[in-house]
Write a structure and sequence with these properties.
single chain; 331 residues; alpha/beta; Rossmann fold; 2 domains; seven-stranded mixed sheet; 12 strands; elongated
């Protein structure tokens, strides 16, 4: 995991890869990129994301201080901050902005209909209204979608596979965003065939989440699914993992960081890879291409990650068939 200082050094040092004579020919035009992430600045995951983005840019010849300037803002999962920082970045007249999630795309599009936006880890960009369609976005935004809502049903299937006795599932989601409502609806379509009763848990404040999960856990045969990833849920990641462990609730999460931090199981795309791939779209836009013509891309790989230590603490025996399908097993 890189520190912020190491990250800045990475970008600054990339210029050494370029021949001195080429750099001496003439000053390059300085371009400006705005980056708005949903994490806090100290979050190691956020630093991992921007490091991947930086590496992608460096490989394409973009170096801070030589031909590009990058302005960073950290939204800390707060929609009010998203709107404020999006407006602040737009006021700097960037050539392109990078948005980490649908709520941030919306904030940028409210601030400007013309500044190009490259988004990452965004659920259902068509349903969210950020693009007209995936093949030809037709707006000032394009990028890398996370997954389709229909995949949400897979979380429930995996949950029943690792914990067959589960009869009740609390679905943690933000109902105010498409990912929350659409993901929950997809799980609802699968639940009857698996004999599971669903309880929606809205994400608002930490005390409300803890109270709702504690109340849910009073009855037996319960488990959790977290729909996401969405920006409004991110500040509560550690709390949800801790409360699930306290009440011995099996839980399925949308990506690997949850399992690394003690969650039972995750299924979803690698959250870091889109940042590296986003550098390619930023490069193309800086060279004159229009985001309206760049197709929205889907993840190239989904990962199943299982934490055996957590399974043991919950008294679960992971089926060999499930272990064989896992991309990573944490012991």
């Amino acid at each position: 995991m890189r520190t912020r200082r190491e990250f800045i050094t990475l970008l600054g040092g990339a210029g050494a890869l370029w021949p001195i004579a080429a750099r001496a020919q003439r000053p390059e035009r300085m371009r400006r990129i705005g980056v708005l992430l949903s994490t806090v600045e100290s979050d190691p995951r956020g630093l991992e994301y921007i490091t991947a983005f930086a590496q992608g840019l460096a490989e394409l010849g973009w170096t801070v201080g030589r031909n590009v300037r990058i302005e960073y803002r950290w939204g800390a999962g707060d929609p009010d901050r998203f709107r404020r920082y999006a407006a602040e970045l737009v006021a700097l007249s960037p050539d392109v902005v990078l948005a980490s999630g649908g709520t941030i795309v919306e904030a940028f599009q409210q601030a400007s209909h013309t500044i190009p936006i490259v988004f990452v880890n965004t659920i259902d960009p068509v349903g969210g209204g950020y693009v007209e369609n995936l093949a030809r976005p037709g707006t000032n935004a394009t990028g890398f979608a996370t997954f389709e809502f229909s995949m949400s049903g897979k979380w429930l299937e995996l949950l029943k596979e690792i914990a067959p006795g589960v009869k009740r599932v609390a679905v943690i989601r933000d109902p105010s965003v498409p990912a929350g409502s659409g993901g929950f609806a997809a799980i609802q379509t699968v639940a009857p065939s698996l004999g599971v009763e669903l309880t929606p848990v809205g994400v608002r404040a930490s005390d409300e989440i803890e109270r709702a999960i504690t109340t849910f856990a009073r009855a037996s045969n319960g488990a959790l699914i977290m729909v996401g990833p969405v920006s409004s849920v991110r500040p509560h990641y550690d709390l949800i993992i801790a409360v699930a462990a306290r009440h011995r609730l099996p839980a399925v999460y949308p990506n690997r960081p949850f399992v690394i931090n003690g969650g039972l199981m995750s299924y979803g795309p690698d959250p870091v890879d889109p940042y590296r791939r986003a550098a390619g779209y930023v490069d193309r836009i800086l060279k004159g291409e229009n985001p309206a013509d760049l197709p929205v891309q889907a993840p190239t790989k989904y990962e199943l990650v299982i934490n055996l230590k957590t399974a043991k603490a919950l008294g679960l025996e992971v089926p060999p068939t499930l272990l064989a399908r896992a991309d990573e097993v944490i012991e």
